[in-house]
Amino acid sequence: MTQNMPTSNRPFILMIGCGRMGSAMLNGWLKANLPFDFAVFKRTKPENFPSNVKLFLESEALKNLPKIPDMIVLAVKPNMTKKILGLLSEVLTPEKLQQSCLFSVMAGIKTTQLTALAHGAPAIAVMPNIAAELRASATSLFIPPETNPKTKKLALQLVEAFGSAVPLRKEEEIQPAIGLAGSGSAYVFLLAELLEQAGVKNGLGKDEARKLSRDMIYGAGVLLKNSPSTATALREQVTSPNGTTAAALSVLMTPENWPNSVNEAVKAAIKRTQELSNEG
Predict the structure, then answer these.
(1) Residue 4 pLDDT exceeds 70
(2) For position 188, what pLDDT does the model report?
(3) Residue 200: enclosing H or E segment and its boundaries?
(4) Distance (Å, whole) CA 228 – CA 38
(5) In angstroms, rounded to a whole number, what is the distance separating the alpha carbons of residues 232 and 224?
(6) At 253, phi and psi to the nearest 5?
């Protein structure tokens, strides 16, 4: 695909906004070699922007869309919702919007809100994480039951192209999914950060502590993903009675430590999701 967007029968995906998460998703899609055409609308040109993706830099340029997007990816901050949908309404009539679908990665904005603001256009809610760039995102999504089968299939193709898809039964489940997996990468990065610091404080060199903590987390993740055992069973398998791991877990598993803190962290993320819904 060249910079001149073809008007083929290939699905046409338009991304609005392309920040850190949007870029991760786009890079994941490009690495997957999907037979789709991609375009991005952004106020300024990002650094190292892919040459095989059409870029629209000014709002007027959206009037030059080669055809109606099959999917409009909303990768902007939730407080931009009304502005962006107003902009789309200026260049796509209600009839054209209804032929597309909104693929929202905006935390806290419900599909019903999006549909109401977009003159009846169907909408789905998607919550990936930053590992989408490596096609390793754990992504939750809610597809309203009235969504037509063709759109549902396209949404699942897009999500599965940058990792695993976990469809949700109810839209309300997107909030705990955000607290668990949407924000969860940062929790793991924090764990790596703290383990590195602990290693150095207890006698390891900085480089050695860094490599050991990262490789250990990677290995544990691979084991978790590929083992049929539960996380509890795996933990018990590597914890010898009265051994070194048991000594460490006796600290971490004290109720006021990890059991309480992890739950409180997820609850804090859920609360912020609810606040963003009101702000949007």
Answers:
(1) no
(2) 97
(3) helix 184-201
(4) 37
(5) 10
(6) -90, 5
